[in-house]
# Entry
Amino acid sequence: KDTEGTVIYLMLLKMIVRAYMDKSTTLSERLESAWYVVFVCRIWWSWLKKESSSSSSKRTTACEQQNHINKYFITKPAYLSVEPNAHNMLYMVLLVKQHSLPKQALINIHLFNSQGCESLFRDARSLSGSFSTIVNFTVNNFIKRSQKLAILNQFKYDQSEHNFLFQSIININTMID
# Structure
């Protein structure tokens, strides 16, 4: 009985992956999984709120009740992404049904996550060099870095298309010979 909460939490994570990341999930399964997570989170939050207010004395402040909820609930950023993502997916389905979006918009839902953005920012930061302590940059700096990344990606593409070889690491033994 002590692990029921953990099992439900892990089930929610599995449903999130199924709804937004798994390529093989059908559209109806995506919608079902996304809204299952939303409704379970709503019920969980309501239950925690009810429990913290009924079990607390009159001297317990609203801040202490909120701390109790925060202790046993998913993080606020996680919750604030669960609900809008489910609404967004449903809205996309409606737009496709109304012929405002092509059907292909629903095929690549697994690509609608932040992984590509995070990878782009990681690559942009890596252009600073290994001895740089600068981790943040302005929008203008980011645009310049992303243009450099586009050029590097074009080189990589050309390399694979035309069998160009760019030596990225020089072997010390070849320098000695």
The two ends are 68 Å apart (CA to CA). The chain has seven helices and no strands. Residues 27-54 form the longest helix (28 residues).
